[in-house]
């Protein structure tokens, strides 16, 4: 064996932090991160969420402050979730002009102007007394087409209050088309749609049910959200949403679905988002609290992996913290 062997030494480029930085294939940037925020109607103090340490249900005032700080840190956008004081069967508070999401949007739009991208989750589950994402029939099924009419109205209310992007997350068939046409008819041609196109029926949403107070009172979401066993179906959902007018598409959850993010990224020419959901956050926090994982490293590795899989935009509860760390 000659003294020169081996000629190829991949370790040369890993030798110093500077070399590793120079040759990194993927980077996290604050502008790629979107912060999901919860705002609760009629609460005097921010409410902690026990399964998501560090995340709160904001008051309107505390939301303004935290949103301002996140934007200062450089996050690319904010996606808003609302918890109304009163819920009913059709989720009336979701499209009420003075509903909590609309009120909070107006606050943020006036504080932040065009300095960030204001997005809204567009669904009914936070607003219905049964916790389902749509209109429930007497036999307990979700009525797809009656739900579309509600989504259309919610989209118009959110756009009127200042949402630049609406993100329908209810997995009803035809939701993007119904929303696009309602927005256009109401003069909101410039409001974009980020489809939660690929949304699995996932146990990783567990902590969110506490955060948004939307655990279904009966049944589950498996009749409309996707089976974790399926992959090809995701492309079908993505292409349907694009045909209906989606401007961007999302894969959710992120960490357990990196293969799906990659397949979607390779198949489309629009921005692809991925959502690191509440359960992904809770797992990192729980393990770190026990001293079982290095919290900061795990956060950064989980996020760069989602970027490496192909996501252009990452929704994460760590957005503001990581944006600050990246400086
Ligand atoms: C529906 C919605 C959910 C999440 C975002 N939008 C819950 C669900 O579909 O059951 C989950 C987000 C998370 O777990 O962080 N409004």
UniProtKB/TrEMBL annotation:
EC number: 4.2.1.24
Pfam family, one: ALAD
GO term, biological process aspect, one: protoporphyrinogen IX biosynthetic process
One GO location term (cellular component): cytosol
Keyword Metal-binding: yes
Keywords annotated in UniProt: Heme biosynthesis, Lyase, Magnesium, Metal-binding, Porphyrin biosynthesis
Entry-linked CDD domains: ALAD_PBGS
Gene Ontology MF: a single term: porphobilinogen synthase activity
EC class name: lyase
Family label: Belongs to the ALAD family.
Record's protein name: Delta-aminolevulinic acid dehydratase
Organism expressing this protein natively: Actinomadura logoneensis
